[in-house]
Write a structure and sequence with these properties.
- By secondary structure, the protein is mainly alpha-helical.
- It has 11 helices and no strands.
- It folds into 2 domains: 90 residues, Orthogonal Bundle (Endonuclease Iii, domain 2), CATH 1.10.1670; 101 residues, Hypothetical protein, domain 2 (Endonuclease III, domain 1, Orthogonal Bundle).
- α9 packs across α11.
- The mean pLDDT is 96.
- The protein binds iron/sulfur cluster.
- Iron/sulfur cluster binds next to loops.
């Protein structure tokens, strides 16, 4: 690929995003949830596993512990037993309980609606906070997960696409600077779906990819 100007790259990003909008016209969060508290806990549980796996355990978890107060007072062993299949269950059970206690102690049992407040909660980083902001509160947020990192790198949507260990906060800042805040949450969903469906970590399916016409990494393994 010849050197691409910043303006050309931004135009390409919008063109490629328009294609993803056609492919995924109505994206939504793949985690099951009925309220912000459930989404917050489910997102925390989704670290290092799939949303599908999390959905298998959250029904029972929230039937048994439907509120921050209930989960704050839960028996850790019991929570571990319920979430066992999501992996790292010792840490995640401890965090879910600690998170619920912090909601009770610091936010009167309500999930806060700002990045600054959400990231004071134990186990909650920018990715989780952005998921909750965008999907539970309609506040623009751009969650950067492993799929977003990989796909934006292959598409060279960001400056550090060569880096083996890119900084998610820098990715969030650079991508958000190009798109309207109203698009951030769905943009993240669409990049995640594209990463899951086509632009796999191993063996991306460039031959059938709708972005192959302009993607700088098309056909490169
Ligand atoms: S062309 Fe290949 S590398 Fe580029 S986005 Fe599509 S699947 Fe990924």
């Amino acid at each position: 690929m010849t050197r691409e100007s910043k303006q050309a790259r931004i135009q390409r990003m919008h063109n490629e995003y328009a294609i993803l909008c056609d492919v995924y016209p109505a994206p939504s969060c793949a985690l099951n949830f009925r309220n912000p508290f459930e989404l917050l806990v489910a997102t925390m549980l989704s670290a290092q596993t799939t949303d599908k796996q999390v959905n298998k355990v959250t029904g029972e978890l929230f039937d048994r512990y439907p509120t921050p107060k209930a989960l704050a007072n839960a028996d850790e062993r019991d929570v571990e037993g319920i979430i066992h299949s999501v992996g790292f269950f010792h840490t995640k059970a401890r965090r879910a309980i600690a998170l619920s206690r912090a909601l009770l102690d610091d936010f009167a049992g309500e999930v806060p609606q700002t990045m600054d407040e959400l990231t004071t909660l134990p186990g909650v980083g920018r990715k989780t906070a952005n998921v909750v902001l965008g999907n539970a509160f309609g506040v623009p947020g751009f969650p950067v997960d492993t799929h977003v990192i990989r796909v934006t790198g292959r598409l060279r949507w960001r400056s550090d696409w060569r880096s083996a260990n890119p900084d998610p906060v820098t990715i969030e800042r650079e991508i958000c600077a190009v798109f309207d805040p109203a698009d951030w949450t769905d943009l993240s969903h669409r990049l995640i779906f594209h990463g899951r469906d086509t632009c796999h970590a191993r063996n991306p399916e460039c031959a059938v990819c709708p972005l192959a016409g302009t993607c700088p990494s098309a056909g490169i393994r």
